[in-house]
Design brief:
Length: 256
């Protein structure tokens, strides 16, 4: 296990869309290059106050096992844990990831709706009795997703960037798959999606920093093709992201 910092870093909740006394959603950002994009926009459209909490600051990218006290997830009306460049089983994030798993269990017990995205979906799987392992085939780019519940997960093109695959919790309902991996499951008031509904052109460019470009090339993916296909799909993806948030709030968050 990587050495963890002994003194907790300073982490503050940020409220970029503060609307007063209204429902509050927390976006849990694991790193500095995971903006919520259209997901946050839709929560605002639906009358939510948006809070964001970043776990690993930019200067700790290479040593991410920070000592951080997470917000109380049960104090929010909804929680959205986002993606991450790390895997849930990486020892270098064990210290804070263990706390995140505990927090997700507490949120579930309190009935707080959680929408997990990519790493966030994997965290939900681990928290509720599933598992995550290295996939035989990665998914980077736009892949078609087959949906068993189109009212929740729209079938068709979704952006992927992951090297792992989820084994869902035993009681979970499998909602969507691709030829390579499980793409979505639900369990009580939890909705997990392996793909990135928040994908926009700006987000892709954040990920394609020098390190990201090298990772994509090593995976055998053309950066030019990745950019061109994103340009084709990104307009429709925004509306699909809006529809996903609507389905989460109207169907999953209201499960009794």
């Amino acid at each position: 296990m990587a050495e963890a910092e002994e003194v907790a870093l300073s982490h503050d909740l940020v409220n970029p869309w503060h609307h007063g006394t209204v429902p509050n959603v927390l976006f849990l950002q694991h790193d500095h290059v995971s903006p919520p994009g259209p997901l946050a926009e839709r929560f605002v459209d639906r009358g939510f106050d948006v809070s964001m909490f970043q776990i690993v600051p930019a200067e700790r990218w290479n040593t991410p096992n920070v000592d951080v006290e997470l917000p109380d997830l049960t104090s929010f009306d909804a929680v959205v844990p986002l993606g991450s460049p790390w895997s849930v089983y990486d020892s270098m994030i064990e210290r804070w990831f263990t706390r995140e798993v505990t927090a997700l269990k507490e949120a579930d017990q309190a009935g707080v709706p959680v929408l997990g995205v990519c790493f966030g979906a994997q965290a939900l799987a681990v928290a509720h009795g599933g598992s995550v392992a290295r996939a035989q085939q990665h998914e980077i780019g736009w892949f078609t997703v087959e949906s068993a519940a189109p009212q929740l997960i729209a079938p068709g093109w979704w952006f992927q960037y992951h090297f792992d695959e989820i084994t869902p919790p035993p009681e979970a309902a499998i909602l969507a798959t691709s030829p390579r991996a499980l793409q979505a499951f639900s369990l009580r008031r939890n909705l997990a999606v392996q793909f990135h509904p928040e994908a926009m052109t700006g987000l892709l460019e954040l990920w394609l920093d020098p390190q990201g470009m090298e990772e994509v090339r090593q995976a055998g993916v053309s950066i030019d093709e990745l950019r061109s296909t994103t340009a084709v799909h990104v307009g429709a993806n925004q509306q699909r992201a809006f529809s996903l948030v609507d389905a989460f709030l109207d169907s999953v968050a209201t499960v009794q």
